[in-house]
Amino acid sequence: MEKMLWKHIETVRRQSPLVHNITNYVVMNSTANALLAAGASPIMSHAHAEVKQMVALSHALVINIGTLDEYWVDAMLLAAETAQQLGKPWVLDPVGAGATSYRDEVLQRLMAFKPTVIRGNASEIMALAKFNGAKTKGVDSTAASLDAVTAAISLLEQQGAVICISGATDIIVDQEFGIHIHNGHPLMTKVTGLGCTASALIGAFIGVVENKTEATSAAMSLLGIAGELAQKEADGPGSLQVKILDQLYNMQEEIFLQQLNISLL
Amino acid sequence: MEKMLWKHIETVRRQSPLVHNITNYVVMNSTANALLAAGASPIMSHAHAEVKQMVALSHALVINIGTLDEYWVDAMLLAAETAQQLGKPWVLDPVGAGATSYRDEVLQRLMAFKPTVIRGNASEIMALAKFNGAKTKGVDSTAASLDAVTAAISLLEQQGAVICISGATDIIVDQEFGIHIHNGHPLMTKVTGLGCTASALIGAFIGVVENKTEATSAAMSLLGIAGELAQKEADGPGSLQVKILDQLYNMQEEIFLQQLNISLL
Amino acid sequence: MEKMLWKHIETVRRQSPLVHNITNYVVMNSTANALLAAGASPIMSHAHAEVKQMVALSHALVINIGTLDEYWVDAMLLAAETAQQLGKPWVLDPVGAGATSYRDEVLQRLMAFKPTVIRGNASEIMALAKFNGAKTKGVDSTAASLDAVTAAISLLEQQGAVICISGATDIIVDQEFGIHIHNGHPLMTKVTGLGCTASALIGAFIGVVENKTEATSAAMSLLGIAGELAQKEADGPGSLQVKILDQLYNMQEEIFLQQLNISLL
């Protein structure tokens, strides 16, 4: 598995997948830079008049509802529908699921187009699982891991998607496997939008890697290890954001395999 | 006073207020990062369908009209009205007041919902004061300090808000006090949106500190001192922007009190 | 020529032109910072209700269609028309020309208002030239240079604009001259939006420099040299983005003239 993840990182660098992002305003610059640093090619586009053509041009689609509004939601729905029709892989990042009824309603409509991967934090994954009546306890980020796994399993049964719960340990589940990734560093929570960056990177990997669970695991471990290495040189969250991009770009096989800390369940 | 300001910085770190921002596109990433670095939790949301729920969830609201348009203005008005109804503190950042008639018209409508704090540069504060006929001379940023104070006093009489004029010296006035903060560094004017960052940080502080004048002073002095310390290590405005985030995150009581340079009037 | 380019850099620093940008979400922060670092003053504004007033206030206008949609396109058309009427110089950055039919249709409408400068990569310039039937081969970025020059010449004959093709070598053509700028570094392609930054800087220079070809050349060489110098100190694309801003701010005559590598044709 470990060597396979590295191979996928090399595949992204070699094939430079075009990743179409309909994402939030806060992270557009940082996710575009992360995609470039990992070797992919970002596109950001949301005009109703061109969204179908952009999906058709791209290897994968990333939908992130962070700063949604009516116009953007229509663009997202159009893009997700097109991706499903064309068989293009797509990632859903359900930012703020459960926070407002509007977000929840939009997420239910988006999920009808069957995302390939859903990545969120424990609270967001639990909120999604509830839509179809899965029983979960209240959201409590400290104790959320186990409940979130139950929610993720319920969600993947409904959706057939690979589910990725990001947190201190990233948990990736599909129909057969569970993978825990223990990389990353707590200072990463003080940089805005690294979750969104994770989703964007997953977009790059599912665009060129056949096995979507491995693709998701490669993206999450790459970012986690980049964060760990960057943190060693950073003086705080400002320099961490900058140095993560440098690390994504410079990542080498030896250091990646040395730092990689995963367990298969 | 000095020790009180430090206590407020610790309060923000401990309570991690949720700050709802309806702000401009240019600074969304940098203000979200500044809020995180100071210990607060940023939310960016502007959809009419959820803006009321977001205000209700948050400790404070920040409205910044930098890149306004009709949809966003309606979101701002809805949020400001909700904040007033729920008694949530909110900051108005009147970017570009006086530059176009549209901005001035929007600002007058927003001010009807009684912001808790208004923060702008001398030119913007003077433009606001003129709405109700205050006599001010033309805007001249070099000689603006005294005129701006007159304008601020006129504005606080109309509005009852704490008024913060940011500049080489930051001036904060309320019904009883005037506070001058002499921290900061001229290179900060070469980084886009540090005024917007100041407003966002004020949002964090007024969300958890009862005395809004002290809250505003704590935010402004924290940013000014972070800027001074960052400038000593910076090679120009690019690295300054990064290092200010590091300094906000790492600020310690001893260095804060040592650098703090305020006068009460 | 070399000394003239440096003089123009000093003119921008001294006159601090106001540059009105209607640009894409990805680069708003980074282009505003680049304009500040070079000594100019950025404005970002797109509301239909104020766009004419903003154009009238500014020294130059920059239109970049990166994340266009219907509302923004109307703002761009209004601004471009106003610029033409008032005789204000303006730059068109045709991001993604040729990628979708919507982009191409919008670009044709914008070009009716006669941009002063058009800056794009080889693929984009070739797409624009095709609108009026110029014969160009298919887009192939590796072999594009010569074809793009043919396209640029065809485009300037149609438009009368200065055409700037950015790439490993930047090529600037007007009715009389061709200028090649050999500055820059390949790592710059791994930072999002440095092409957009180039266009924004061209906006600053054409706002205060009479000769628009020289203005464009000064902007492109300044950014290229800043990129080269920054790359020497950078650990990857993250730190490169930061250090380019520092270099733009700190650029000195001696190092600029020493690094400058141009040829006149």
Task: Walk me through what this model shows.
The structure is a homotrimer of 265-residue chains. With 265 residues, chain A is α/β, with parallel strands linked by helices. The first copy, chain A, has one domain (2-264): UDP-N-acetylmuramoyl-L-alanine:D-glutamate ligase (3-Layer(aba) Sandwich), CATH 3.40.1190. Chain A has helices at 2-15, 28-37, 51-57, 70-86, 101-111, 122-130, 144-159, 194-208, 212-233, 237-250, 253-259; strands spanning 18-22, 41-44, 60-64, 90-93, 117-121, 162-166, 170-173, 178-181, 262-264. Chain A has a nine-stranded mixed β-sheet with strand order 2-1-3-4-5-6-7-8-9, with helices on both faces. The model of chain A is unreliable at 136-143 (pLDDT under 50). Chain A binds chain B through residues 24-27, 29-30, 66-70, 96, 99-103, 189-193, 234-239, 241-242, and chain B through 25, 28-29, 32-33, 36-37, 42-50, 53-54, 57, 71, 241-250.
